C-alpha cells in the first residue's frame, strides 16, 4: 500500500502555506517514521501510505480542525490546486468535467497504489465515481480524494458544484463512492 511522494509533499506544503503559524507544532507532532519520511521524500517515488499520508493528516486534523473530515477535505483541495497548475492547468481548463473525471482512474493510479475506480453513472451535469480499491480503507484518504476532485472540477469551471461521499470503504461499504453534480 503506497502513495506517491507528491501527495506527502502536498500535506507538508498545505500546513506550511495555509497554517504557517502552526507548522512547527505540526512537524513536532509527527512520529519519527513520518518525520524521517517527510525530510527525505522525493515527489516521484512511492512510500508507505500510513506514515506518509494518514499519520501526518491525522496530526494536522487533531491540531487544527474540530472536524477531521474537513481537514482532510481541505488538504485534498489544496493538493489539486497546487498539482493542477502550470502545464496541467491548461489540460484541466480545456477539459470538460466528464472528460476529466472519466480519466480520473489514470490520475488516481499515479498517486495511490493500488487503486481502481470507475465511472458508474454519467450525465452532462452529474457523475457517480466508484473506487473499488484504495491502498487502505481510511476515511482521511477518502476525504482527501473527494476534496481533490472538488477542486479539480472548480478549476475546470464547474459552478454550483456538489461532491458528496455516498459510500465509504472505511465505514464498511464494499466501495468508496462519490456523487458529483454541477451546472
Description:
The chain has 183 residues and is an alpha+beta fold. It folds into two domains: 65 residues; 99 residues, H-NOX domain (Alpha-Beta Complex). Helices cover 54% and strands 20% of the residues. The protein contains nine helices and seven strands, in the order βαααβαααααβββαββ. The strands form two sheets. The protein has a four-stranded antiparallel sheet with strand order 4-5-7-6. A three-stranded antiparallel sheet has the order 2-1-3. α1 crosses α5 and α5 packs across α9. It starts with a strand and ends with a strand. The model has no long low-confidence stretch (mean pLDDT 88).
List keywords for this structure.
183 residues; alpha+beta; H-NOX domain; three-stranded antiparallel beta sheet; 20% strand
Largest sheet: 4 strands, antiparallel
Radius of gyration over C-alpha positions, nearest whole angstrom: 16 Å
Overall number of strands: 7
What is the string of SSEs from the N terminus onward? EHHHEHHHHHEEEHEE
> Helix segment count?
9
What is the subunit arrangement here? single chain
Uncertain runs = none
CATH topology of the largest domain: H-NOX domain
Strand fraction band? 15-25%
> What number is the mean pLDDT?
88
CATH architecture of the largest domain, please?
Answer: Alpha-Beta Complex
Q: Would you kindly provide a brief summary of this structure?
A:
With 183 residues, this protein is an alpha+beta fold. The chain has 9 helices and 7 strands, in the order βαααβαααααβββαββ.
Amino acid at each position: 500500500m503506497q502513495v506517491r511522494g507528491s501527495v506527502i509533499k502536498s500535506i507538508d506544503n498545505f500546513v506550511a502555506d495555509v497554517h504557517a503559524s502552526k507548522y512547527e507544532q505540526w512537524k513536532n507532532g509527527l512520529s519519527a517514521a513520518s518525520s524521517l519520511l517527510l525530510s527525505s521524500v522525493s515527489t516521484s517515488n512511492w512510500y508507505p501510505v500510513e506514515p506518509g499520508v494518514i499519520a501526518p493528516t491525522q496530526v494536522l486534523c487533531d491540531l487544527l480542525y474540530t472536524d477531521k473530515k474537513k481537514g482532510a477535505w481541505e488538504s485534498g483541495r489544496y493538493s489539486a490546486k497546487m498539482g493542477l497548475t502550470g502545464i496541467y492547468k491548461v489540460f484541466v481548463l480545456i477539459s470538460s468535467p466528464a472528460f476529466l473525471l472519466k480519466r480520473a482512474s489514470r490520475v488516481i493510479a499515479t498517486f495511490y497504489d493500488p487503486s481502481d475506480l470507475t465511472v458508474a453513472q454519467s450525465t452532462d451535469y452529474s457523475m457517480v465515481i466508484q473506487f473499488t480499491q484504495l491502498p487502505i480503507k481510511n476515511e482521511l484518504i477518502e476525504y482527501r480524494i473527494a476534496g481533490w476532485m472538488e477542486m479539480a472540477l472548480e478549476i475546470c469551471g464547474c459552478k454550483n458544484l456538489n461532491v458528496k461521499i455516498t459510500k465509504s470503504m472505511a465505514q464498511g461499504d464494499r466501495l468508496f463512492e462519490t456523487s458529483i453534480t454541477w451546472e
